[in-house]
Amino acid sequence: MASETPPPTRALAFGRAARAYDAYRPRYPGAAFKTVEEFSGRPLAGARVADVGTGTGIAARALHERGARVVGVEPGAAMAAQFRGELPGIPLVRGDGNRLPLADGSLDLVTYAQSWHWTDPARAVPSALRALRPGGALALMWNDPDPSVPWVADQRARIEKWFGPGCFISDVRTPAELSWRKRTLRWSRRVTVDFHLAKLATHSAVIMLDASEAAAFLAAERAQLTRHFPGLLDEPYATTVVVALRP
Ligand SMILES: C[S@@+](CC[C@H](N)C(=O)[O-])C[C@H]1O[C@@H](n2cnc3c(N)ncnc32)[C@H](O)[C@@H]1O
Hints:
Elements: H1 18-24, H2 30-40, E1 48-52, H3 58-65, E2 69-74, H4 77-86, E3 92-94, E4 107-113, H5 121-131, E5 132-145, H6 150-163, E6 180-192, H7 193-200, H8 204-207, H9 211-228, E7 232-245
The chain binds S-adenosylmethionine (SAM).
């Protein structure tokens, strides 16, 4: 009997689309990293940083380019392989954000870019605080489609109808035991409808669908979008940055 690969959990589904994830997901705006520097009270240059749930390394690369000494932490095999292929100069360890495989007090900054909502904060907070030096910073980032833009709000309503409430929306949970500073940055990128649909296909809810359901969802979205955008569209984002210091 042929052996079957068990379906991944949603948290680890991204590996099925690792290359597309890296190609189509948005980068973080430079202002997000400036905000991390401002809220953490130190420059990224020379900082010892762990980027957790690093995936294909979208945030890790940006941190590295700003002079940080970054290590990526990623539980998924395929995302880790994509990272290593793209960023051979940045170290990566396989590990879980709920129990970081990092030495106590060894870091100035721990980042979770678009990955905190996949952890259990009751375990992830103490784990991150343990790895930080006193005064070090825990920074969480999300790149969400900006719901204040009408077509994004309409799309969100369609997505919620298809997948259920709360889908595709990052749940910004900031545990009460720490004192957080928060900033939301608005920006957009101009992409084709095809590019936008390819980005939608990298969301875990879509990856978890079977192929025919995913195709039906994307075809329905294409029909809606091409009515308003014959070619290019402005894909608007609200990037949220929240930072707390280790007491
Ligand atoms: C939406 S992707 C974000 C990837 C990257 N940080 C970025 O900004 O594009 C979420 C990542 O979190 C990882 N992940 C899932 N569960 C995790 C956990 N418990 N601890 C750490 N990372 C986790 C997934 O494998 C995936 O690579």
